[in-house]
Design a protein that fits this description.
Pfam families: Chal_sti_synt_C, Chal_sti_synt_N. Keywords: Transferase. Belongs to the thiolase-like superfamily. Chalcone/stilbene synthases family. This is Type III polyketide synthase. The chain has 383 residues and is of the alpha+beta class. It has a domain of 157 residues: Thiolase/Chalcone synthase (Peroxisomal Thiolase, Chain A, domain 1, 3-Layer(aba) Sandwich), CATH 3.40.47.10. 38% of the residues lie in helices and 23% in strands. Strands 1, 4, 5, 6, 7, 8, 9, 12, 13 and 14 form a 10-stranded mixed beta sheet that branches. Strands 2-3 form a two-stranded antiparallel sheet. A two-stranded antiparallel sheet has the order 10-11.
């Protein structure tokens, strides 16, 4: 007799942002002032800041809120005063830890999980590094067991948060008593470039800072609202390696995002979704990583989604910007709060994220409300 896979779910989610809030309109105005000697660049920056779907973001760097003349990250006639990569990494080391701890504590509280229950720790980041790493610092500060299984996922880009979720499910398939803590932290604004080039201005227009965390495990009889996870898919899309490039430079990390990315996703992702769904109809819930407004627009158009279905992704983009690997959990948290507030019953869905490569990460999800009994849970999953 074939045995069904164990029920594995996201048991708790936590998010955190720094204290400094970036207003999009104000930042566009100050940036245009810094670009007054390059009027074409100034006009282009104003347009892209207005059109990218972001209204507010958060940053760990208060200097980004200062005037055009005082902001060291804005374009100038010389890069002499711009923060070096070393300066930015020092800020990353200082600011990433408290944000990560905040998100982790919230996830543990949301899932009603004790730190002593955590058997595995995945730390995810592509905007900074230091050693001993974030995994060791968090293990110590959270009071995790000395033999907790630690796995850092570094420099994998926006899709890495969903990659960690998929890998955690693999851990649970081999050990149903495991509890995996995932912590994603990204300080994207530290890499804003002092450049008038369009590529740099585009990257500066919609990335934000923040951290998210979740607990992956088997839901118990008293589980709260959870997202059950099924078998996911990770695929390297063909002939796209140069469309998203992220390299270490002298002034932080240099990012190139091709304007063709939404069109490439539109042409390549339908086959991957079809493969994942394996003949099933399109689900109700769509947790789309808002890597940019164009990506969400593309997915909505492709699969004929309603505005309600894409609202969690667009809300996160509007209020927080793209927080790289941390963003997908912001979206799932937003989705969970919506579903809870309207008293939703079980609902099937899909989570999608894209990263350098181009890499596509996809995983089926099912929202299971707290009111459902354990017997109903098992019956629904195996139906």
């Amino acid at each position: 007799m074939e045995h069904a896979d164990p029920i594995i779910a996201i048991l708790g989610i936590g998010t955190a942002v720094p204290e400094f809030r970036i207003d999009q309109a104000d930042t566009a105005h100050r940036l245009a002032e810094a670009l007054r000697d390059s009027p074409d660049s100034a006009r282009w920056a104003k347009r892209i800041f207005k059109q990218c779907g972001v209204e507010t973001r958060y940053t760990c760097e208060p200097n980004l809120l200062e005037s055009a003349e005082s902001c060291r990250y804005f374009p100038r006639s010389t890069t002499q005063d711009a923060p070096s990569t070393r300066d930015r990494m020092q800020t990353y080391k200082k600011e990433s830890v408290p944000l990560s701890l905040d998100a982790a504590h919230k996830a543990l509280l949301d899932g009603n999980i004790k730190t002593s229950d955590i058997t595995h720790l995945f730390t995810v980041s592509c905007t900074g590094q230091f050693l001993p790493g974030l995994d060791t610092v968090l293990a110590n500060k959270l009071g995790l067991a000395a033999d907790v299984n630690r796995t850092p996922l570094n420099f994998l880009g926006c899709a890495a948060g969903l990659k960690a979720i998929s890998l955690s499910r693999q851990v649970l398939l081999g050990n149903q008593s495991a509890k995996v803590l995932i912590v994603c932290v990204e300080l994207c604004t530290l890499h804003i470039q002092p450049s008038s080039q369009r590529e740099a201005l585009f990257a500066a227009s919609f990335f934000g800072d923040g951290a998210s965390a979740c607990i992956i495990g088997a839901p118990g009889p008293d589980h709260k609202d959870v997202f059950q996870l099924d078998d996911g898919r990770s695929v390297l899309l063909p002939d796209c390696a140069d469309e998203m490039v992220w390299e270490v430079g002298n002034y932080g990390f240099d990012l190139y995002l091709s304007p063709s990315i939404p069109k490439l996703i539109a042409s390549l992702i339908p086959a991957e979704v079809e493969h994942l769904l394996d003949g099933k109809s399109n689900p109700e819930l769509w947790a789309i990583h808002p890597g940019g407004r164009g990506i969400v627009d593309s997915i909505q158009s492709l699969f004929k989604l309603t505005d309600e279905q894409t609202r969690p992704s667009r809300t996160v983009l509007r209020d927080y910007g793209n927080v790289s690997s941390a963003t997908l959990l912001f979206v799932l948290n937003e989705m969970k709060q919506e579903l809870k507030s309207k008293g939703s019953g079980p609902a099937t869905g899909i989570a999608l994220a894209f990263g350098p490569g181009l890499t596509a990460e996809l995983i089926p999800i099912t929202y299971l409300p707290a009111v459902i009994s354990q017997e109903q849970l098992i019956g629904h999953v195996r139906a």
